[in-house]
Here is the input.
Amino acid sequence: MTKDWNLPREGSCRCGAVRLTMTKPAILTAACHCRGCQKMSASSYSLTLMLPEDGLTVTAGEPVLGGLKGDTVRHFFCPSCLTWIFSKPQRVPGFINLRATMLDDTSDIAPFIETWTDEKLAFAETGAPKRFPQFPGPEDMAPLRRDFAEWTERNP
Ligand SMILES: [Zn+2]
Ligand SMILES: [Zn+2]
Here is the structure.
């Protein structure tokens, strides 16, 4: 059975000025332990739903660029509450990384991979079945997407 993502699925920033609708299933879910994610999330790791770029619609508000200027990833924030909402990685065009905690319902969200365990806080465990010391390489993406699809069928 394929996972039922309950689409379309709504989300927002902390204050609600930016609202979103997720309209396509995630192709991968991830937790990232890198120092940049630690700082921007003010926590031990970030949570991501990787979506096709046309699988996320901003329905209210206008997210603004933030994070590290000149980064290969463009990070978008709420202009009012400054919540980190989503990112567009330039090295993976056509995809958008939604911070999973923006969804109104997060009850079925879990990371399939964790990245940058080289920089993780000693206590931080996510339960992700696959781990990478840094980011997976481009050649890892097709097998990861296939394995993720199988995993979500077993863990709907
Ligand atoms: Zn906001
Ligand atoms: Zn990161």
Remarks:
- The mean pLDDT is 95.
- The chain has one domain: 9-133.
